[in-house]
Amino acid sequence: MGGSWFVQLFVSATAGFALSVLRPRFGRVVYGAVLATMFVPYTVNMVSLFVTVTDLPFLHLNLGDTYWAIWLPAGTNAFTVLLAKQFFDALPRELFDAARVDGASTRQLLTRIVLPMSRPVLAVISLLAIMHSWKDFIWPLVALTDPEKQPISVALAQLATQALQDQLIAAMVLAVAPPVLVFVVCQKYLVAGLGFTGVKG
């Protein structure tokens, strides 16, 4: 779960920063392509994703049955990129211009100005990443065949056919407790972050 959270947070923050602050020449085309992936059902992508994971392009590495097969696909979340970009769009561009006049590099602009001001949206992305990786079932079931590496969502399905009912209910309570606690702790950041990004329920 920690690896999925880090990869998704890193990709969302850097992609949103590039599209919103750096604004490359073909940024709109790239942003449109990213948004287009939101219309493709998750199960449709699984075949191409599995082929990619078992034969990584250019490197020709097989990441099957490794944690990297779970972590790397977590970065391909268009919704969190959308959240990050919308939040960065709301930041005053005068700060970016002033930082460039003072000689700040692109890395310093991201790490010293944008990210410290973006804690609400980073909390939202973190919460969404943790919740998604915790409850994801289909992809870990396909990518991880080693029972010792499978997450609790997959382990519960296997436990249902072996354990007693009281043991299964106890395991389900333990599985639900962590994301609920994370949501309770981070709910104020979630409301603040969604307010800044303009996303409404």
Word description of this protein:
With 201 residues, the chain is an all-alpha fold. Helices cover 73% and strands 0% of the residues. It contains eleven helices and no strands. The chain has helices at 2-22, 27-36, 42-54, 68-71, 78-90, 93-101, 106-117, 119-135, 138-143, 152-159, 165-197. Helix 5 packs parallel to helix 11. The longest helix is centred in the C-terminal third of the chain and has 33 residues, at 165-197.
Layout: helices, strands, pairs:
Layout: H1 2-22, H2 27-36, H3 42-54, H4 68-71, H5 78-90, H6 93-101, H7 106-117, H8 119-135, H9 138-143, H10 152-159, H11 165-197
Helical fraction: over 70%
First-to-last CA distance? 26 Å
The tally of beta strands, per DSSP, is: 0
| Contiguous helical run count | 11
Largest sheet: none
Q: What is the string of helix and strand elements?
A: HHHHHHHHHHH
- Poorly predicted regions are none
Can I get a quick summary?
73% of the residues lie in helices and 0% in strands. It has eleven helices and no strands.
What key attributes describe this structure?
single chain; 201 residues; globular
